[in-house]
Amino acid sequence: MKQPHSRTRPPLALLVVALLALAACRDDAPQALGTLEYDRITLPAPAAERIADIAVREGERVEAGARILTLERVRGDAQLAVARADVARQREALEELRNGARAEDIDQARANLAAARAQARDARAYLARLQPLGARQLVAASELDRARAAAGSADAQVAAARAVLAELDNGVRPEQIAQAQAALDAAQAQLQAQSVTTGRLDLVAPRAGRVDSLPYRLGDEAPVGAPLAVLLVGEAPHARVYVPEPLRAGVEVGDRATVLVGAAGERRYAGRVRMIRSEPTFTPYYALSGRDAARLSYLAEVELEGEGVSELPAGLPLRVEFAR
Predict the structure, then answer these.
(1) Where does this protein have coiled-coil stretches (predicted)?
(2) Residue pair 270/305 in contact by the 8 Å Cβ criterion
């Protein structure tokens, strides 16, 4: 009996061979694995204060200037009040120096000088009366010495009172005014710094983006510099991949690439290399020479292009194929 001739076998065989060839070609394409990422902005804690209010949730999109959370302001407001009071004190001290001595102070200095001169005249007169008696040894030598010392002390008090009056008449020195001005400038700078610190107790978004993480909760007290919020910003995500050493020499900034997003690479986007590190991300001690050097990997970023890119979520696995 004559066997029927099948017309489907040759085309089917050719199709299988063609698919295998395409798969082999696809596997041989230079690839790098990674994840889909956005640029990240971290908002650090400006002060070690308790979180009093949280205005957003993780995953929420915010505009630039939107309030993220608020820290307790009691201590910050008190420190701001102290800085303002110090500025006021330094300003009044400078104004006092510029205005000079009051007329009442000058009159008091003149009265003190007149009293010192009267005491000096009395001391000198007493000494003049004792000197002849001392020459005839009618008074003790110690009494004459005390009178002479009292006269000298009275003359010194006159000189001191005269100097005080002259200082008031001449006014303050320019160096004193300059020092007072410098103290005022320092107090104003401290007030400005404290105002900025207190103002930052209300954390706001510096750019439009999406809230990726809020590590602390309501009532927590984070240390200074701890990340209170992490924002994902940028119009589109980028592929963050690790380029193996065999491909590193052929990848440069500006090169075109194809980004396959998803575990199975179901979404395909055009891309362009925007950054690649010159140093490997991880260098084991045995990978510096020989065949193990192929284990080195270099961090790279590839910009995605095309419609719908901005709607992709961060964290998706992907692979990048570089053009040969």
Answers:
(1) 80-126
(2) yes
**Strand, coil or helix: what is 266?**
coil
Assess whether 153 and 109 both reside in one domain.
yes
Residue 143, phi then psi, degrees to nearest 5: -65, -40
Which CATH number goes with the domain that contains 254? 2.40.30.170
Q: How many domains does the chain have?
A: 3
Q: In 1-50, which ranges are E strands? A: 31-44
**Side chain identity at 84, as an amino acid letter?**
R
Residues 240 and 172 in one domain: no
- Dihedral sign of CA atoms 186, 189, 193, 199 in order: positive
CA distance 235 to 129: 104
Buried b (16+ CB within 10 A) or exposed e, 149-174: ebbeebbebbeebbebbeebeeebee
Q: List the structure tokens of 101.
A: 């001595």
Both 225 and 238 in a single domain? Answer: no
Do 87 and 190 fall into the same domain? yes
The answer as to whether 314 is a domain residue is: yes
* Domain interval for residue 271: 30-38+234-322
What angle in degrees, to the nearest 10, is found between the helix axes of 141-170 and 103-135?
Answer: 160
pLDDT tens for residues 236-291? Answer: 889 999 998 888 888 999 999 999 998 877 789 999 999 999 888 766 555 556 66
